[in-house]
Amino acid sequence: MIDKILTKAEQTHVLTQQEIVTLLQSTQPTVLFAAADRTRQKYVGDGVYLRGLIEFSNYCKNDCMYCGIRKSNTRAQRYRLSPAQIVEMARKAVDYGYKTVVLQSGEDGFFSADVMCDIIRQIKKIGLVITLSIGEKKLEEYASYKQAGADRYLLRIETTDKALYEKLDPGMSFENRLRCLQDLKELGYEVGSGSLVGLPGQTLESLAEDLLFFQRLPVDMAGIGPFIPHPDTPLFSETANGHFELSLKMMAIMRLLLPDINIPATTAMETLHPQGRLLALQCGANVVMPNVTEGNYRQKYELYPGKICTGDTPAKCRACIEGKIQSIGRHISQSRGFHGDYLKGK
Ligand code: 5AD
Ligand code: FES
User: Fold this and answer.
1) Rounded CA gap, 254 and 249, in Å?
2) Within 13 Å, how many C-alpha atoms sit on residue 310's CB side?
3) How many CB atoms lie under 10 A from the CB of residue 322?
4) Which atom of ligand 2 has the smallest separation from the CA of 316?
5) pLDDT digit string (tens) for 217-253?
């Protein structure tokens, strides 16, 4: 049964919702992981793209029930980097050899479109590829960032179960999230999305729908993160039991359905398992996003507890990740890592 589904997936990259659920239920996922690893090797090769992550503000106007920087969390120690600090961190990212920086923050009103565009233009001058991960905005704002030089945008759908989405993200609308992703596609961004795995009330059917949604859009990148309960959120009493393995399965199936996209080995995976990112890289992933935020800001950007590397420097993470990647016979790709570059031989 499993073998038949995997053969079909490897040959056609098409699966039904039921077939995906069967794979997610599998108690012997080794064959699934091996199929994903083969597909990754065949379509995107052994290179791993690094993206330097700058977490520039943890102010957020939203109140997502799972997130440690939700606005109602009065225990979060808020910080906001100045535009000059952000640009300086981007400069250092170049020195570490990163070709892309990901600018991530909560939905912070301080960073108006004008302020963001100014930062984007300055970083663009350094010659970096820019990925934004700053949440839901109006079409005009997305258009102005693009105009200023932004290349990619990350906006996870989190879950495609509309009722669950609206329950866990009070005050937010699922329709608006879809609208944002659609706008970003139409504006010509490389679009990254993704979902959380293990949310209370989430079913295997809805996880399968998430993957079919990424395939329909289609995304250029998608990150799968295990849900890790944060003690200062309403979901504090949940557990993360089983979320690591289920996330690995989700990533592996995603590689089979979208064979040439970029899939990150997420930081949350390594928070749940000491070898989490390496295992992810061997189950379909081909991207790592090392943190380049400096000083004590890192520990304040606490989306979930136990986040790795919060006491480390950008230099430490750079060296650490290179060693890890090489230890599994892979290498850091020197290309800029746009979706499809590998196939085009770039
Ligand atoms: N556990 C894991 N990931 C989380 N995120 C937010 N809160 C948590 C949590 N408790 C993820 C969301 C968001 C990304 C930046 O961090 O998926 O899109
Ligand atoms: Fe930060 Fe390993 S990646 S210490």
Assistant:
1) 8
2) 15
3) 18
4) 4
5) 999 999 999 999 999 999 999 999 999 999 999 999 9
pTM of the model: 0.97
Least distant ligand from the CA of 306: 1
Q: How far apart are CA 346 and CA 341, in angstroms?
A: 5
Q: To test ligand 2's pocket by mutation, which of 309, 318, 326, 332 has the most ligand atoms within 8 angstroms of CB?
A: 309
Tell me how far CA of residue 106 lies from CA of 52, 55, 62, 70, 289, in angstroms: 17, 9, 8, 8, 18
> In the chain, where are the structural domains located?
2-335
Q: How many angstroms separate the most distant Cα atoms in the chain?
A: 57
Tell how far the Cα of 227 is from the centroid of ligand 2, in angstroms.
20
Q: Please check the confidence at residue 13 and state whether its pLDDT lies above 90.
A: yes
Is residue 254 lining ligand 1, measured as CB closer than 6 Å?
A: no
Please, what CATH class does the domain formed by 2-335 belong to? Answer: alpha beta
The alpha carbon of 156 and the centre of ligand 1 are apart by a number of angstroms equal to: 9
- Can you point out the beta strands (E) in the chain? 47-50, 52-57, 100-105, 129-133, 152-154, 190-197, 221-226, 287-288, 331-332
CA-to-CA distance for 284 and 29, rounded, in angstroms? 13
The residue nearest atom 3 of ligand 2, judged by CA position, is 317
Which of 63, 66, 214, 239 has most ligand 1 atoms within 8 Å of CB, for mutation? 66
Q: How far is the CA of 309 from the centre of ligand 2 (A)?
A: 5
